[in-house]
Amino acid sequence: VSESYSGVAVSWLAKYGVSVEEAIRRGIIYNGYFDQLIFPFYGRDGRLVCYQGRNLNSERAAKAKYYNVGDAQEAISVYKTQGSGFPKRLVITEDALSAIRIARQCDAIPALGTHVPVSRIVALAPSYEVVTVWLDSDKWREARTIAENFQWLGLSANTIFTKLDPKCYTDAEIKKYLTSGT
């Protein structure tokens, strides 16, 4: 299966510690014609509501690294943990690959930006006791706003601020940040 991914796609995933097999298991599709990784996202009813493309072609990536097609506000796809690290905890990241990396330890969902609409918060809240918002370091205000919205629903919510995206850290470092909560 990994033969269908370009060398650039394999290298980009590997840079963040994700194998092609894990990418496929998480639903990531490689589009060879456009040299893009496609991250599909689904709504409440299980239908595809949007997808995010990651341009790997340097010419296209210079114009836009990522782009969304469809209604990202309706997406509630959660990358479920395949471990037993932090049950009943949801981590919200900006991008899908960061969410995939965190999902090795607890459930995670990408915001697909820096805003999480109230409708998505209401849809996710019943399944979790703790919500952690881990956005890019320059999005502190947006992260606090998202966490406060979950707190209004009675959930424990916090933020984690790091210099780099979650996908840039090792699994051990991610676990340390999740444990310390800062």
Assign an overall shape.
Answer: globular
**Rg estimate, integer Å:** 16 Å
- What is the N-to-C order of secondary-structure elements (H for helix, E for strand)? HHEEEHEEHEHEHEH
Report mean pLDDT, rounded to a whole number.
Answer: 89
Structure annotation, total helices: 7
Strand content: 15-25%
> Which sheet architecture does the biggest sheet show?
4 strands, antiparallel
Q: What's the number of extended β-strand segments?
A: 8
Question: Could you name the key traits of this structure?
Answer:
182 residues; 32% helix; 7 helices; alpha/beta; four-stranded parallel sheet; globular; four-stranded antiparallel sheet; 8 strands; single chain
Annotate the secondary structure layout:
Elements: H1 7-15, H2 20-25, E1 29-31, E2 36-42, E3 48-55, H3 58-63, E4 66-70, E5 89-93, H4 96-102, E6 107-110, H5 118-124, E7 130-134, H6 140-152, E8 156-159, H7 171-180
Parallel strand pairs: 5-6, 5-7, 7-8
Antiparallel strand pairs: 1-2, 2-3, 3-4
Concise synopsis of the structure shown:
The protein has 182 residues and is an alpha/beta fold. It contains seven helices and eight strands, in the order H-H-E-E-E-H-E-E-H-E-H-E-H-E-H.
